[in-house]
Amino acid sequence: MNRYLFTLLILLSSWTFSAQVVINKAENFPVFHINFAGQLPAMTLSERFGENASVGAGYFYKTKSGWLWGADFQYLFGNDVKEDSILDQLRSSNGEILNEYGEYATILLTESGYWVGLKTGKIFPIMKNYPNSGIMVTAGIGFLEHKIWIQNQSNNAPQVLGDYKKGYDRLSNGVGTQLFLGYVHVGKKQYANFFAGFEFTQAWTQNRRTINLDTRLQDTSQRIDQLWGFRFGWIVPIYRNVSSDYYY
Fold it and tell me: How many C-beta atoms lie closer than 10 Å to residue 11's C-beta?
């Protein structure tokens, strides 16, 4: 009796360990993601800022046929401000700005901005065992805004506080388009998925301040702002109701 039981257990064990997932089915499911990019400005944006970074979050829905629809938000920031002469008229003969106590004020100029948009695209599978992964191409439309962020660390320099600050920050925004070409991996493990690729953003923007205090003029010129970059993201697909084929 024990010999037969032992033989049965061996057979069951062999059958169990021979089972393996051969292929996942293409499925419909929503995906949430967070991402990071390094970007280089071009056209009129390169006259104001140097290279910047971008962090973002978003959502898209993937269909069985690989089509995508979604939305995302990206925050832009950087330390390279080329248009740094905006406060020159506030400086003393030695190049410093004085605060309300007659002391040297600590003022920093950085880049701040964001992109928010809607997008659509498609995943083109390149490996049979991963039909939800492959080359990802997306195109989107959205809104780009950027400005020179003026930071007075102690908030004690009235020349650059409140509405006075707005007169120098060059706030600009407008509608734009965004293209992405890269690779997305969506496997069996829910928390081991990613995408990576090249991204291009172009927006038609304009200065939205009534007047620039340093020039005493209103800037009505039309801008073409571009960003080129490489974006990497961690994605979390919601795998509810997603099935797999098993073979033994």
Answer: 10
pTM to 2 decimal places: 0.85
The label of the residue with tokens 């990206």 reads 74
Q: Of the CATH numbers 3.50.50.60, 3.40.50.300, 2.40.160.20, 2.40.50.140, which one belongs to the domain with range 28-242?
A: 2.40.160.20
CA dist list (Å): 170 to 119, 147, 155: 28, 5, 20
User: In this structure, are residues 63 and 115 in contact, taking their beta carbons and an 8 Å threshold?
Assistant: no
| End-to-end alpha carbon distance in the chain | 28
- Which amino acid would we find at residue 20? Q
Cα 116 from Cα 175, distance rounded (Å): 10
Residue 150 CA to residue 90 CA, distance in Å, equals 13
Q: What is the pLDDT of residues 116-126, one digit of tens each?
A: 999 999 999 99
Residue 15 pLDDT class (50, 70, 90 cuts):
very low
134-152/107-124 β-pairing: antiparallel
CA 30, CA 237: separation in Å to the nearest integer? 6
- Delimit the domains of the chain by residue range: 28-242
**CB contact burial 16-27 (16+ within 10 A = b; e otherwise):** eeeeeeeebebb
pLDDT confidence tier of residue 24, bands split at 50, 70 and 90: low
